[in-house]
## 1
Amino acid sequence: TEKTAKLLTDEYENAESDPVDGKFEYVYNREDLAFLAGRKYHAKRNHVAKFDKNYSAVYTEITKENVDLLKDAAKHRYRLIEGSPDDEFTAINEAIAHFDELSLRACVISVDGRTVAYSIGSMINGDTADIHFEKADRSFEGSYAKVNKSFAENAFADALYLNREED
């Protein structure tokens, strides 16, 4: 907000603020995204419920032992999304290549052995996690809402806030 930008520019001598439409960070209470309680999250809850009704999904936490599953998921999703930016795919691959060094957390959601979504994030301070990348197959209705909720619930139980970047 303009108020927050002013606080930062007042506090830090060399800080500048130049807001760009569509490039704002969205920070949520983690519990809100993990549990989707209340009217505010009714639509997301419905998307997750529809996904759960239609598909028998498996949530897999990614570790250094199974990071190849994430690498395969990223490659698969990249090929399916026409016009995917090459630099984003390069960044995703670099993140995966340095999974442990970057202290990343990730998940893959699959249906009948087919990867339909993945998410990659990390803790950025003592109480806030950042979701760096999130991809899902839109042909599986509710897949984005499902990976969003599942990742918030499982990967970041130690976070109070989730920064979903440009959401």
## 2
Amino acid sequence: NVDLMAASIACKKLASGAKVVLVDVKYGEASLIRDYSKALKLANLLKYIFDECEVESVIVVTDTCQTFGEGVGNAIEVVDALDVLKGKHCFLRDMSVFFATEMILKAKPNLKREDVEDMVKMALDNGTAYESFMKLIKAQGGNDKAVRENKIFKPYKTINFVSDKEGYVGNINSLLLGELVRRMCQETHDSNLGVAIRVKIGDYIKKGDVIVTYYYKTDEELEKYKNAISKCIGVTDYMVKPVDVVRKVIR
């Protein structure tokens, strides 16, 4: 129910006292909302609510045809975010810079987009963003030392799945990957399990290139999930254009 979703999302933001809000409305196979038109309806409704409440907002509609980060799993997704905060250049960083820039421009509309983007990138590259996050963890009673010492994600066993042919990445089954990892973690209650998607749609790959890394604990788990994981990435013989996951920005 789009109306109930809008109310739930908006109430949380408004209750926090936020003056500037950005909401990423996701749609597609790996989302609660499968249809773009329904996602757009939710986005417009959220924008209407925030405008009525005199809260500056940016609503972004994004496609879940591929994940922003590489990791799928509780701990590995945290590591993805930490890597970006440490200055890693990747698709997740690009999306983070985009979102942060949109937020800052809403709060400071007199600034130039290029200048803001440079400021955000500098904060990531010089460690300012990472140190700010460490302060947030510590202020809330979290274990920032465990984060600094890379104790968040400790995989037991690792195996790489490679492409059996040369070509272009045509599709990534994000829904299946998410469902597989959910089952793994549900069965074991272990956050050190998961997968890392090493490619994006449109990437050109050679036979033998790594496409997915699987982090598992037992050989039984490997046997149970390996066939499904290996089928989550589709490789085609023809050229595929990279996907622009940002479908709409409502400012």
